[in-house]
Design goal:
heterodimer; A: mainly beta; 11 strands; globular; B: mainly beta; five-stranded antiparallel sheet
């Protein structure tokens, strides 16, 4: 167990709907990164939040947005869902320290999103 | 060219044998490398991290890094059926940065 939790576990939506996924980081971790993992592929970086600010974004359209709260938990919002958004959504928490290479990202159990 | 590449497998090994997994990366700026294990339907679980050239051992696992060749490998000794999973290689440019993953190698350990 990594101490990172995500909700919900599974979700089924229809095309065009909106969805919010939630992540609680490991105690003491101030950074949350979100990844999308399509079936049979490696995780793809969506964005990262550090101390409530977006700190890097991957090649995802603006309909993917996020938030980080003062307790460092985070939300991923996806608007206008498309069939290709069906995937496992993973959040990972970490505690990066300046000049230290050894911070590690620990993954939550993921949310399986199915778009019909 | 993908930033991180892995052979998709499956890599089939008999129980008790050594499984050898390879990963190459294209960005020379990458500093840190990680191996994650992912069971079907589950999230990635960290096995090893490596930052310096050479070997790093942890139990039955050994990670090897060769920055000149832009190559990372993972050896699993005394492979067990419970090692059957997909192994993901990830690279990172600096502390706190995103992880860039390869597509994963599926490993099947046969009793």
């Amino acid at each position: 167990e990594t101490g990172v939790t995500q909700s919900p576990t599974h979700l089924i939506k229809t095309r065009g709907q909106q969805v919010t996924l939630r992540c609680s980081s490991q105690s003491g971790h101030n950074t949350v990164s979100w990844y999308q993992q399509a079936l049979g592929q490696g995780p793809q970086f969506i964005f990262q939040y550090y101390r409530e600010e977006e700190n890097g974004r991957g090649n995802f359209p603006p309909r993917f947005s996020g938030l980080q709260f003062p307790n460092y938990s985070s939300e991923l919002n996806v608007n206008a869902l498309e069939l290709d958004d069906s995937a496992l959504y993973l959040c990972a928490s970490s505690l990066p320290l300046a000049g230290v290479r050894t911070d590690t990202q620990y993954f939550g159990p993921g949310t399986r999103l199915t778009v019909l | 060219q993908k930033e991180v590449e892995q052979n998709s497998g499956p890599l089939s090994v008999p129980e008790g044998a050594i499984a050898s997994l390879n990963c190459t990366y294209s960005d020379r700026v990458s500093q840190s490398f990680f191996w994650y294990r992912q069971y079907s339907g589950k999230s990635p679980e960290l096995i090893m991290s490596i930052y310096s050239n050479g070997d790093k051992e942890d139990g039955r696992f050994t990670a090897q890094l060769n920055k000149a060749s832009q190559y990372v490998s993972l050896l699993i000794r005394d492979s067990q059926p419970s090692d059957s999973a997909t192994y993901l290689c990830a690279a990172r440019k600096a502390a706190g940065n995103k992880l860039t993953f390869g597509g994963g190698t599926r490993v099947l350990v046969k009793p």
